[in-house]
Design a protein that fits this description.
Number of strands: 6
Mean pLDDT: 82
GO molecular function: protein serine/threonine kinase activity
Keywords: Kinase, Serine/threonine-protein kinase, Transferase
CATH superfamily: Histidine kinase-like ATPase, C-terminal domain
Number of helices: 3
InterPro entries: Anti-sigma-factor_SerPK (IPR050267), HATPase_C_sf (IPR036890), HATPase_dom (IPR003594)
CATH class: Alpha Beta
Strand content: 25-35%
Helix content: 25-40%
Distance between the termini: 32 Å
Number of domains: 1
Protein name: Serine-protein kinase
Radius of gyration: 16 Å
Low-confidence stretches: 3-19
């Protein structure tokens, strides 16, 4: 994984023997401003191939949570880090894989992301945890592996299904 310049974005159309897939691959530096540009590139890359604005908003929410967690926790401000995002549109929906070489997730698995009790004073709200709840609510088939120094988080969004 190497970005060329600050951000590399490429849309690839591939036809497999029994199914059609639209693929998008983005490589970006592990920086907040690069995450914002990467999310914009994803929306621009997927919009023309039939995703609704609501579908793109759900995807953006999930990816923003994941990518910002990678920048903030896996790389802990190490701006030399790289993040790769692979998206593949299939008949089952949009398959997403996010790859980085930052620190492994605590306990080697994604947080549970339990829903927090919001019936309290703002000052008493817990810090964090909301993002993983949203990710788990919107994404399906969530899998995480850490092998040979590489984190790989894969999931499926029930959006943009090919017929």
């Amino acid at each position: 994984m190497r970005p060329e310049g600050n951000l590399q974005s490429k849309v690839v159309r591939r036809v497999a023997p029994q199914s059609k897939e639209n693929e998008l691959r983005i490589i970006l530096p592990a920086r907040e401003n690069a995450v914002r540009r990467g999310l914009k590139s994803i929306k621009n890359g997927l919009g023309p191939i039939g995703f609704s604005s609501d579908e793109l908003a759900s995807l953006e929410l999930v990816l923003a949570e994941i990518l910002n967690n990678i920048v903030e926790h896996a790389y802990r401000g190490n701006e030399a880090g790289i993040i790769e995002i692979q998206l593949s549109q299939t008949t089952a929906g949009l398959w997403c894989t996010v790859i980085d070489t930052g620190a492994m997730m605590p306990n080697g698995e994604p947080p549970l992301g339990m829903q927090c009790d919001l019936n309290c004073d703002v000052a008493d709200l817990p810090e964090g945890g909301f993002g993983w709840f949203l990710i788990r609510e919107l994404a399906h088939d969530l899998e995480y592996t850490h092998e040979e120094g590489q984190n790989r988080l894969s999931f499926r969004m029930s959006i943009g299904r090919l017929n």
